[in-house]
Amino acid sequence: MTPNEQDAGPVPAPANQxxxxxESRELFRGDNEILISHDGAIYRMKITRQGKLILNK
Length: 57
Prior knowledge:
- By secondary structure, this protein is an alpha+beta fold.
- The chain has a domain at 23-57: Complement Module, domain 1.
- 16% of the residues lie in helices and 30% in strands.
- It has helices spanning 3-6, 24-28; strands at residues 33-38, 41-47, 53-56.
- The chain has a three-stranded antiparallel beta sheet with strand order 1-2-3, with no helix packed on it.
- A hairpin with a 5-residue loop joins strand 2 and strand 3.
């Protein structure tokens, strides 16, 4: 098993944390780019070659 496979399970939230954490791999599902609809506008989120996220309107 690789280190990434070990991290595949849900991340438990700390007891005092109220914000939800969403894993990027759940959003992207193997793609490098997704479109997000927000308040009537479409945004594009991309994973760069360096593994960083970029969000553009």
